[in-house]
Amino acid sequence: MHYPLNTPLGRMGVQTLEESPDRCVASIPVGDLLNPLTRMPTVAPLAMLVDHIGGLINHLRRSDDEWTVSSELAIELTPNALDLVTAAPQVPVVATARPFGPKGTASLGLCELTHGDQPLGTATVRSFHIHAPGHVVAWPADSAEGTPPATLEDRMSVEVAETGGRTAVLRQLPDPVINNSIGIVHGGVSAAALELVGCAALGDGTGVPWRTASLRVNYLRQFRGGNESRYEARALRTGRSSGVADAQAIGDDGAVALVARLTAYR
């Protein structure tokens, strides 16, 4: 399934290849995209892919009067993940998701990430089952023709606010195109942005890229783009070959909406 460019999935180039309660498959382009803060290659779009396909497999388990919202997302990548996607940028990353364990207050989706015939990582998405909100809106059904914007910052509607030292900040611009069906920033977009600022906060100006090994995101409350909406990260530790950063998404009201921890190696 191709999505219109005026939806978050279409804007990020996501395609759903298979959809059933037992197995969902989707892909996303990752190669040739750069972190706007560091101008270096990034695997951040994988967070968008995982949130979509892991959330979808959970969503298909809901009852008729239920909706689902992401509560946790976790990604574990192979040491060569960044090298694989940059060496063959024309090859999209594919995620295959299956339900894991029984449905409860929250359901768990397990994902396998591959690049061509190479394993890239594993991921999980935990989704809360809630009563269906009354303000769910259908995404536009316009033509899927065209291509997404060339740069990652344009796809995600973010702009650089601060970089350097041990902190990094991206602004989340108000843009309905990157909102989900309940009118807030798509969880995959915000998770990807947290990866971007987390990796940038580890940067030391050497030009040697950090390779994200793990990303764990907790969704605390609704997050909307606005004049003061932003993603911030600070480095907790940077060593010769490993680093850890904490990141958060902060809304216009100053409240923290998402938190994340990123671990990277080089």
Tell me what the structure shows.
This protein is 18% helix and 39% strand. The chain is α+β, with helices and mostly antiparallel strands and 266 residues long. The model has no long low-confidence stretch (mean pLDDT 93). α2 runs antiparallel to α5. The longest helix is centred in the last third of the chain and has 16 residues. It contains 5 helices and 12 strands. The termini are far apart. Strands 1-2-4-5-6-3-9-12-11-10-8-7 form a 12-stranded antiparallel beta sheet. A hairpin with a 3-residue loop joins β10 and β11.
Brief characterization of the structure:
The protein has helices spanning 8-11, 45-59, 81-87, 152-156, 187-202, and strands spanning 15-19, 24-28, 66-77, 93-100, 106-115, 118-131, 158-164, 167-172, 211-219, 230-238, 242-250, 256-265.
Low-confidence stretches: none
Count every helix, treating DSSP H or I runs of 4 or more residues as helices.
Answer: 5
- Helix-and-strand structural type: alpha+beta
Gross morphology: globular
Number of strands: 12
How far apart, in Å, are the first and last alpha carbons? 36 Å
Strand content: 35-45%
Helix content: 10-25%
Mean pLDDT: 93
Largest sheet: 12 strands, antiparallel
Q: Order of helices and strands, N to C?
A: HEEHEHEEEHEEHEEEE
Gyration radius, in Å = 17 Å
- Spatial sequence of strands, sheet with the most strands: 1-2-4-5-6-3-9-12-11-10-8-7
